[in-house]
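Hi P.,

Sorry for the delay on this. The queue was packed all week, but I finally got your sequence through. Input first:
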Amino acid sequence: MDNIIRRVMASEIKGIAPKNFTVEVVISDQTVDRFKEVIKASAWKKGLGNFKEHPVLLSSHNYHGLMNQIGEASTIGVKDDSLQAKFKYYVNEEVPNLEAAWGWVLASKGVAAYSVGFIRKAGYSLDEEDPPKGVDEEEYAQFQKAGVRYVYTDVELLECSHVLVPANPMCLQNSFEQGNVLRSLEEQAYPMLAELEAALKDVSQYQSVLKEDREFFEGKLWEESDTEIMHRLMDPSLCSKFRSFMLKKTKPRIRGIMGKLKDSEDWKLQSLRFLKEDGWTMEDAKAWVKAHPDLGKSIDEEEIAMKLEDFEETMESLKAKFNVDFEAQMKISLESMTETLRVAAEEIAAKTLAMLDVELEKRKIEEIIGEGKDKEVETDTKDTDGVLAVFNSITEEMKRAFDVQS
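Then the structure:
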């Protein structure tokens, strides 16, 4: 990281909002710094894009350890020839951060100082008598008169840090580096030291609150019911949807709960469920979690995309669709059977009446010409075959209908 340049700026706190733990700060202007360098306000305009994607507020440029991020820049931009930002401190979060809490105490007292880490993209030195091509001559002359050594015209902001430098940070940092603490600086710092001393009296109160927050959070991390022990890895309110899958299939089993993050397509491991019927105890579960610190990193969304619960959900959906379709088909079949039976009944009735007419006609002939002479008279006796065909048709239709039901 040798190419990263860090500068403590003459920061000015423009506004403080205690309710949401935010401060509005002028981070950088075109003042000549202690290195005899100037960062032009316009130099920041091109180099804020990457920072806005990850607008971290660090503690003292410390890149090692996640707890060193004590806040974030909710807004940042160039205004009135200066780089200005609104910083939100991570105070009263679900996981306590003492560094952030104390940083907020200093910021709320108006004694915070801020430093920027950036990469130089372009600039020019003032060693030559004449300015480089494209540089305003009058501005160049003013910078030379002020003893400026170098002017940055294009920089990329990497991070902002809250640093332990009270107001007038340039002089105080110079004096420490040179081994001289000037009496005038002590006099200037005295009012601020008095405020700090008063703030220190409130440390025990902050520590008490943070301890309560920590104990409350620890209580939420682990919960126990009659059937399982639950270990929460992420606040469920951050998720819009959940999936359950068997993380450890062999006994003693562990069920995992994946959560889909709100306003995102990402899935994260939200909690673990240790099944008591397999012998899990709270002590054993905590030991297992401690032995698997990278558990969340090893779970990939694709690995749980079609787990058991997904299959069950799919099966339920198909079952519901099948039931709807089956009911519709049965309705159609019953309507068809009803119509077939109606037609068959009409045909049977017609055939039966025809048979009766034939029988009556036969009896009339017997009465007229005598018994046994009726064979000489032609009559239609094939109607019985028609009736049999109708009954066969009904039998086949009913057989098909019952096959569908079974």
